[in-house]
Amino acid sequence: MRAWKVKLRRLEGDFASPGAEGGIKTTLQGGPIAPYAPAPADPVSNYAANAGLGLTANRGLRELHTYHTPLDLVRERSPEHPVALVRRDAVAAAARWFQTKFKGDVLYAVKANPSPWVIETLVQNGVTRFDVASIPEIALVAEHAPGSQMAFMHPVKSRRAISQAYFDYGVRTFALDTHEELAKIIDATGGARDLNLIVRMAVDAEGANFSLSGKFGVNSFDAPGLLLAARQATAELMGVSFHVGSQCMRPTAYQAAMAQVGRSLVRAGVFADVVDVGGGFPSIYPGMIPPDMDDYFAAIERGFNEMPVSETTELWCEPGRALVAESTSLLTRVELRKGEALYLNDGSYGSLFDAAHVKWPFPVKLYRGEGKNAQEVEGDLKPFRFYGPTCDSLDHMPGPFYLPADIQEGDFIEIGMLGAYGVAMTTRFNGFGETEMVEVSDAPMASMFGLARRSIPAPRPASNVVRLSRPKGRKRRRK
Ligand SMILES: Cc1ncc(COP(=O)(O)O)c(C=O)c1O
Fold this sequence. Notes:
8-stranded parallel β-barrel, 20% strand
């Protein structure tokens, strides 16, 4: 364990509140971190279907069927239910990339994809720390990554969840963004002094597709008081965290957020033992080609170097999407075609939440036929929209999804890049949502980590292709 150091440090002047000096402790109180306790049988984690931990909860990779490609699966049988096609290599490559290139500690944000095979693959590839948000997530990680370290990064937790995390699972790291939550954590852990307290700050979400600062995070005005209170409340680590927003397309957003956090630390007159830059690292979707991941890491390194930190300050990140997005695609079947509307056996209550609610036009491929005759179909493309199987009109994915114009009932559509916030969102609404899972070993449809091309072309229908005429007076050059 990290050697104990004086935790209440002043940056400049006498900013600390009266009595702060008395708060300096040079011995660790609260005793050693409790050994990992096996997960008690928790009915929640055994649930057959609930958001995030539903159908994936009890399926380790060992039980999965393996096919070389999705087409091999279609050739072998015609699956009745949607199939999550999982690629262990994609998670392994992303994990190794982060482990090698990020100059700090990597905590996987379990919410992005809580499948046991993901957790096991991450551990096998060096990611052994987890950002968890609930007791079922904690139980899941304890079961599939025993001995790993967990950080309870949800800024609002029930007292019971805090106690269970601390006493039953040995969790010592807790996030907070209010004085009330700080008091709750201290109370629910029996006044523990061995806590790592991470203050979540609200930062600008410029360049991100989903802002996560509206709901959580203390503002810059209130931050200094909370930072100081957290500093005084623990004899262990006091840190800061933020989230620049998910699918962040601008690396400099991290640097700007770190500067903002740094100013609050200066105003509070404390150093942080941990700077946690959160998640937000992007993946590739049609029309969204992010800068290189290296650019994000370089911006974070610059931001860290410019922050008022000590040489022992730890740098953490909590990627969700970037570690898993490429790993999973979904095989769905067309149950009916009505003009340009395709009715599928999966939808917004299944793995297509983002396709419906954020209207992302995920990349698609088409497979047709049975047995050995099944094949991938290309041909002239037309824009289609999708409807899911439930009775709700909101179960609609507008796309447009470009697919061969002659697509018909019984065809299979593979929808790519659904590893993050895809299977994690599945519900059993209306009796649908049963999703099979098989392992495949082909490349993902795009990759930030060198497994496939770094872009997804946004296709156009054949009839809309505009041919540019040759400029007058210029002859076509022969190749
Ligand atoms: C606290 C926290 N950390 C990390 C993440 C993961 O974010 P992303 O998937 O954008 O990397 C989230 C996502 O909601 C989060 O709330």
